[in-house]
Amino acid sequence: MREPRAVDGPPSLRAVQQWFQDAITAPSAGTERAAALLAAPAGPSAERRVELYRRGCRRRLLEVMRHRHPALRALLGPELFDAFAGEYLDARPSRSYTLGRLDERLAAHLAAHRPDRYRPAGQREFWIDLMIDLVRYECLFAEVYDGPGTEGEPPAPWPAELPGATTAAAAPGLRVFRGCAAVHEYHSAVRRGARPGPPEPGPVDLVVFRRDFRVVTVRPPAEAFTLLAALLSGAPLDAAAERAGVGDGTARRHLRRWIAQRWLTARLPERVPAAPVPTPRQETPR
Length: 286
Hints:
It is a single chain. The chain is mainly alpha-helical and 286 residues long. Among the domains are: 7-67, no CATH class; 162-267, Outer Surface Protein A, domain 3 (Alpha-Beta Complex). It has helices at 13-25, 34-37, 46-68, 70-76, 78-91, 106-113, 126-146, 183-191, 222-232, 237-244, 248-260; strands at residues 167-170, 175-181, 201-211, 214-218, 264-267. The strands form 2 sheets. Strands 2-3-4 form a 3-stranded antiparallel sheet. Strands 1-5 form a two-stranded antiparallel sheet. A hairpin with a 2-residue loop joins strand 3 (201-211) and strand 4. Helix 4 crosses helix 5. The mean pLDDT is 86. InterPro entries: DUF2063. Keywords: DNA-binding.
């Protein structure tokens, strides 16, 4: 923990604020400087008051983690979930002004500390993959729910033609997700109050978007998902169709449907003006 230093006079406000943040978020932080930096009204000591504040802050952060990850909590059970969440909060204290970003590094933290991380991908435990993908999906769900959407916006202009060089841009709130199991179904069941069994292994490709302020999840056919993912990566329509293994007509039908659903907006290539045809010179008779 960084202690405020007094060079010429009392420590700066920034130094005191940094010390207080460390004192209530770092698990091993000491409170030795509390008496010198905090007011001393009647009642508990400064050290005791810092400790009480630290415990209250910790309980609040755990409550946020439980609220944002109901499916993971249902999968692990309350005690094991709190243990994982507490370990994460200790290792990666919040540094954001909003609690909405408290769990943004949870999936990476679990992946970095999984006990089988040194094994080849095909030999790793499905149970750990399921945990990580469930965290990823719950974070994605919250991001789409809380983020911008297309509600109230006018429909995108309908292109008369879709040349092969057409590219596409995702509408606000559209995301694609690849996971090791149907974590979206498990998450939905838990939110409805059910107690489902763990999902079975099996890859899933999902499109997640918002419609009328509700998060909607769709599981498209494999070729359509590959085409959509290629378009979202910036590939032009012809290249995306080739990557997905579909014909030009099929690719254009998919793109038109996604424009109508407000998933995408088309970006037509700029037309290059044709070069003027040179006028033949007429020879003057001599």
